[in-house]
Sequence to fold (261 residues):
Amino acid sequence: QEYTALKLRVKEWAETAKTKVEGLIPDGGEVYFVPATLRPETMYGQTCCFVGPNITYGIYEAVKGKEYYFISDRAARNMAYQSIMPSWGVYPKVAELLGSDVVGTLVHAPLSVQKDGVRILPMDSVKASKGTGVVTSVPSDSPDDYATMLDLVKKADYYKIKKEWADLPLLPIIETPAYGNLTAKFLVESMKINSPKDAKQLAEAKDLAYKEGFYKGKMCYGEFTGKSVEEAKPLVRQQLIDAGEAFAYAEPDGLVVSRSG
Ligand code: ZZB
Fold:
């Protein structure tokens, strides 16, 4: 799997995170949350970024004294063998935090219409074993994100978040013949998905959204408006990479199995 790893720069830490990070990042150093995405063309519509509240994350030094990535241990290790970390096979960990420690942190999300930044929010279905364990949220086009957003808004107190961190307008980014320009909302409603825990139905909705979006979708927002998603995807990706706001990250699936077998 070739992902686009996006760099969401920390603007303001949540209280718990601030205490744990204090003194560990040098002056002039920036920390980035790094979600792995297969949909760079949807980045305009980011409304928040998810972490698993019970997952343990690290902050790793990626550019000496300058760039620090908030990701899973597993992702840091993989990155160390993809020339993303400063030296081959090495991934210096400067801090360890729980997902719940960083909920409420404000980050800058590249390309997002939320120019003042988006919040780090909890998502129980984030897998520690996939991508970087950090997931950027595009509720207009990702059924999982849309279902989670509804739940966060409905039970903001239970999740210990401010309702307005999750309750943001959906941005139409991609027009499709079958589902209109808010694919995730359309699918979640028409399939009567009531909770982010409806894993089976959400997986089905995700599959439908991917196919319709990729093969029939047309951009209706941003610089590539009018182009097909198939054309726009690599263009947006390259633009982010050229701006230093993203990098390629590959998931080495199957490697471990074949080595031990
Ligand atoms: C933004 C985005 C916008 C995504 C969209 C999807 C969609 P896949 O297909 O199963 O490989 N993701 C990444 N890492 C994790 C994780 N650790 N746990 C849970 N979800 C994760 O899934 C790749 C997508 O799953 C990624 O792309 C990411 O969400 C999420 F409009 O990033 B995506 C129809 C999907 N639309």
